[in-house]
Amino acid sequence: MAEPILKVVNLKKHYPIRRGMFNKQVGNRLVVDGVDIQINPGETVALVGESGCGKTVLLRVLLGIEEATEGEIYYYGKDITKLSKQEKKEMRKKVQMIFQDSMSALHPRFSIMESLAEPLILNGMKDKEQIEKIVVETLEKVGLDAKYRFRNPESLSGGQRQRVVIARALVERPELILADEPISALDVSLQAQVLNLLMDLRDEYKLSMLFVAHDLAVVRQIADYIVIMYAGHTLEAAPAAEIYSNACHPYTQVLLESAPSISKGIRDEEFRLNLKIGDTPDPAHLPSGCVFHTRCVYADENCCRKVPERHKISPGHYACCDKYMEIGRS
Ligand code: SF4
Description:
The strands form two sheets. This protein has an eight-stranded mixed β-sheet with strand order 6-7-8-3-9-10-12-11. Strands 2-1-4-5 form a four-stranded antiparallel β-sheet. The protein has helices at 55-62, 85-94, 102-105, 112-122, 128-141, 158-170, 188-205, 216-219, 240-246, 250-262, 268-272, 301-305, 324-327, and strands at residues 6-19, 24-39, 44-48, 70-75, 78-79, 95-98, 176-180, 208-213, 225-230, 233-239, 311-314, 317-319. The protein is α/β, with parallel strands linked by helices. The structure holds iron/sulfur cluster. Residues 250, 290, 292-293, 296, 298-299, 303, 308, 321-323 line the site of iron/sulfur cluster (SF4).
């Protein structure tokens, strides 16, 4: 079997909490606390969870913007902390990010041409004609006419800007795309268009993708494998078809029940009707036992005390709930 393009093992990102005159460490915020992800070449893995579950911090660690507290990250089998300077540079070209907020992802004073040319120039390309050719080709690939290269980000619509952000991620012909909620800032009418574009580009360039979303409806079409995250923990992970047909964790079941409504603009309060009242837990004070017990309608005393095991349901399908057999698919 081919080497995974990205393998993340037991990744943790904790932030110390310091107090007092001597800035003494009094605890930790456990923002990411033991996440495993594997992305095989050509595969799209979706990371799904509510805001504040640690998805964005995880992406920042994968991009090298922040250091992991613990855990391993392998790129084609190589520990990324042990890559040489040259190998790191190569990896940065091959792993690109698509940001959620297109306005802040693009330099406001740069023309689209400048924004797209910048990574090529930084990586040593000097031939102006070649740079312009690549920029024009890439703009056309994302469905924008070449004339858009002379415009500024603020003169474009939200949908056009997001296409430019996608073009910028593609301009160096990457292998792996990390997409942070790439369609959630768009109008519902544009979401399907941009999602279809991403799927076409993925197939054309044989890209692998880590697609972050808060909505299981959004990733239904694009994901091969889904990881469900809550309060920095993985609660369930499975091939996409298994998640939609045989979700075993109560939280995944709630996400599934809410999915069609969320994409139509459900309010947070309505979403919470399916859960016990309360917000996602504070990473500085995570619940004991099962991290989900404060909102789980099936929680009992045992759930408050014992961290649930990672149960194997079927090949590639895992759920962290000790009562999954009793609960079944609701
Ligand atoms: Fe709910 Fe208990 Fe299962 Fe956790 S272990 S998800 S609290 S039933």
